[in-house]
Amino acid sequence: MKTITTTHDLAEFCNRAAQAPYVTVDTEFLRERTYYSKLCLVQLAIPGKSDADAVLVDPLADGISLDPLYDLFRNEKVVKVFHAARQDLEIFYVDAKVIPTPLFDTQVAAMVCGFGDQVGYETLVRKIAKQSLDKSSRFTDWSRRPLSDAQKTYALADVTHLRQIYEYLAAKLEKTGRSHWVSEELATLTTPETYIVRPEDAWERVKTRSSSPRLLAIVRALAEFRESYAQTRNIPRSRVFKDDALIELASTKPKTSDDLQKSRLLLREARKGDIANGILAAVAHGMSLAQEDLPKVAPDVDQKAVNQALADLLRVLLKAKTENSGVAAKLIASTSDLDALASGERDIAPLRGWRYEVFGQDALRLCNGEIGLVAKGKSVKTFDIPA
Fold it and tell me: Is residue 96 left, alpha or beta, with left meaning phi > 0 and alpha meaning psi from -120 to 50?
């Protein structure tokens, strides 16, 4: 197996790949000690059976540039095939502001093709390629050199079997006329906004039990400080302070360094220096905001407004549509989507695009009393209700 360590060799392979209909891609990276992922290895394969058709690229090799790879990613004549692409794409976008196009994600395609929710690569290898994977190298340190033969074999398998999986799923999508379903799902992955983390929005990921605008204002300020600090120093946000400490700080509202010492959850390193100063400034900022500047949280679906009987019928309809279409239920509609439908909400994902074809159209008809459900044996079917 070949490991590419020079820009020249990478360019040679990418020039060959530019003539192929697709290239399969995977990465190995580390993120335990950094905010941004550290790219340690890139695996590439093109159609073929020779050793030269699948390679490992060492981005840690002295002097190597990944520009030839990024040029290949921009080549719209070659499909770039990943499995569960989100983290891989984030690495490439952060490094070079490039998103591979056109893109094919076999995990998304497998969900559309009846393989269940968020199916793993190992499962697809077993079911489609009829092979098994040696996962013994899965949790190794990919930044250490030299790589062992076991690591190389493991890494290469992540793109060699992917060729067969891609060809199988692409053919099935073409046969069923569902290729555009996958394209719709991949729109989020190919949008740069997906990979931009704005510190001012970081608070939205923090789970709180309180809806107090003042407390949320402090949460917002603390989360923004933590995100900015972690980004500029390239350290995990948990190394600054964890979510439970953030919630504690928002509740206790420390004003002085002495107040910080009373925290039960704050890391020792965060009780002094720049982090401590940042915490106190963030709390003070959240406390000083005028009422009109406090964050406003969109209310959840009012359970009192949900027609529970209708919500239950929608769940039965979803199960029936899932069985008929073979598409994973979670990909079509979530529980909150169904509750929103049953409360009268109409601006939701199941009523748009391919989901409308599969489920949304009949869901609306059920809500409007135009169709009913009937059990026939082990299956559930719809029937028209006369006007």
Answer: alpha
